[in-house]
Write a structure and sequence with these properties.
This protein has five helices and three strands. By secondary structure, the chain is mainly α. It has one domain. The protein has a three-stranded mixed sheet with strand order 1-2-3. α3 packs across α4. The longest helix is centred in the last third of the chain and has 27 residues.
Length: 133
Amino acid sequence: MNMKSITASWVIALGLLGIFSLMKQPTLNHSAEDKVITIPQDDAPHTEEQMNELEAKVWCALDGHQVAQVQFQGTTRTLEGAMAIAPHWAGNAFSEQQLQLITPCINQRLQHLALRLQHQKSAPAMDYLFTQL
């Protein structure tokens, strides 16, 4: 076989593989009830620190199609999931296995939120712009 026929064979094989993989795409069967999780009022956060912890839990536990709603200081806050480590979490306590998997993610997210908050408070570039101009 020459190089052209080998290349053509590979192109055809990869093309067929691509077509078959597109035809067998999984379908997610999320209902509207699965997408919104309401955090019970008893478990609702009372301080900003508790709210950050809940935001980190939701971000780590749920997937991008799921949100959690919680009452915080008189307003309804919507928190979005992202990592899907425990996508079947319903806002209650984590199982021991879920807790073991999700704890590193929560700690990392809390560090990120703390740094973001610190950056928002200091904002040296914005301070310079508004005090020097």
